[in-house]
Amino acid sequence: GFPEIRAIFLAQFHPDQGPIVRMSVPEDAVDVGENAYTDTGATNRSSELRDTGAMGGIVSSSNNFAHEPEVVELIKRTTARGGPSLVDSSKIDFNSIQTLIIPKLTLFERLITVNTGRFKVMCYPVAIEGNYARNMFIFNMCFAFDISADTKCYGPVVKRVGSLLKELEVTGRLLSDVAGTRALLTMMRQLVNKLNDHGEYQIELDLKGLSQPMASTGISIKLFPYYENPATIEAFHVPVKLVDFDVARRKSAQTVYQQHASNDIMWDLVLDKVAEGIDNVNHVRRIARQAQIPEPTVVLALQHLDYYGCIALVDIFQFSNVYEAQARVKDVMRNGWLQRECHAYVTRDGQAGTVSLERLIQLYATVRQRRTVAEWIVDNCIDVERFDVRRFIVFGVLHGMLRRVHCFPVLCASVESADKEPSRRGSNSGSGSGDEEPLKLEPRVVAMLDGTHHLDEICVAENKDAAVMRGLLDSYGGIEYGMSEFPHSTVVTVPFGEPRLARIASESLQVDRELSGDKVVRTISVEDANLVVSFTANSLRVLRVSINGFMDSLILVTRTLEAFA
């Protein structure tokens, strides 16, 4: 369900007293301190509003706001005794968050979420310029939730309420006129009750005393579940079913027709064809080829299924893959439901006694980097006839217990230097045929050997098996493999003035290999008279150390060229 609203309060900037809480529901939900100004709708304080005039705001200059003495004093508000005010932990401490509730003008009409004590407060501050005490009227309708609540679904609601109140203020002076206090308080009470009970709110506001055009105004608000944006789906991803598509198809048909759906009720034609190809093994490109549907269309269909939680995405399973255990392995030790699900999913046909739960936990803990799945099977004496290794790995990846460690091939030597060594690129020295054509890779493959494309991506792009592609790369020569992900990269371009000097520098610098080849990859190439050096590393610290070391060598080379070239 949706998170429960604990309180709603309306904050304003008073022209004389600064940030205030004008009203709240419940009335005692906000702790504003002993000297704070509040208006809970009582008659005796309504007259005080009439004496002080309309609610005002700060001037539009942010510099003037920073130098307002009243604001600085209110931020450090104290009790009459001079000591810090004691805050009730069951209430919202307005003093601690008032600078965010009534922020600087750069944050107006932006969704703001702030945590204070046991509460999470969402708000949408609004400023209206006009004929007010300080030429501006500033207010903020704030929603308070439990600190642990997931409030993403309330973002559109908070923004809509703020925009509606702005429109009502511009057209009918609902907030700045004291006559609108009763209508505001009624709306706030119904907001809390209706949204908490039914997830939607609809009301007709009676504004006859404020504005004739706005005498009767209807407000409709509805909560909707929040779904994360669909993940980026690549050709090498493998969709895994999380729901039974046949059941989902019937339920969707029953929802539309309000009757028992027959077997001939169909989904969208593309979804039907794509769903037929999802077997938890096929990758996206293979599904597109089998369904004879353009790959972008298949990606859109899979994003639709992923958006509604019907599928999850994993990598292509191969026995040459490398995985490592994550900290969430301990979850399977504490979660009985997860243990049962894992046991039923991994064992062949759910056979009881095939593998004990203790054994499953031990096996997840033994998965470590630098060991392929095939080596892991041999090390742990896995009976593959009774134990589904693919499902074991997929289950661990889906629940965050395992992480795939990709293999990133990198062409460390430039193509020009590789061409000088045909024996490293496929010439068969044992066959005695010296005129054999050396192996050449397609330019698009060479372009992907920069440390940012892993082997799965290259294999799917070239429609080749991983073992075949790795054999081709090994035959080509000059390829190094990094077994860790390299999310950080940069390119350094050094102009030398002449192509000859750039080539000399390239050949001199390529002699020194990176000491941490599993953490950083350096690629050197020559473009016209420029030396182009690309770095990819698994952390910013490693990237910085590699660049600094390279710069030392580059300085030595350039000084040598200046002296002798």
Give the arrangement of secondary structure elements.
Layout (H helix, E strand, L loop, with lengths): L6 E8 L3 E8 L4 E2 L11 H10 L9 H5 L2 H7 L16 E2 H8 L10 E5 L2 E5 L2 E4 L6 E11 L8 H18 L8 H18 L1 E7 L9 E7 L15 E4 L3 H13 L11 H9 L6 H8 L3 H13 L3 E4 L7 E4 L3 H6 L1 H11 L10 H10 L6 H7 L9 H10 L3 E4 L2 E4 L3 H5 L23 H5 L7 H8 L3 H11 L2 E4 L5 E8 L3 H11 L10 E8 L2 E8 L2 H25 L1
Parallel strand pairs: 3-4
Antiparallel strand pairs: 1-2, 1-8, 5-6, 6-8, 7-8, 9-10, 11-12, 13-14, 15-16, 17-19, 18-19
Describe the structure.
There is one protein chain. With 565 residues, this protein is of the alpha+beta class. It is 39% helix and 19% strand. It has 21 helices and 19 strands. The N and C termini lie far apart (74 Å).
- The chain-level mean pLDDT equals 78
How many helices? The count is 21
Low-confidence stretches: 35-85, 253-262, 415-434
Secondary-structure-derived class: alpha+beta
Distance between the termini: 74 Å
Task: Please state the CA-atom Rg, rounded to the nearest Å.
Answer: 33 Å
Beta percentage is 15-25%
Proportion in helices: 25-40%
Largest sheet properties: 6 strands, antiparallel
Specify the overall morphology.
extended
Tally of strands: 19
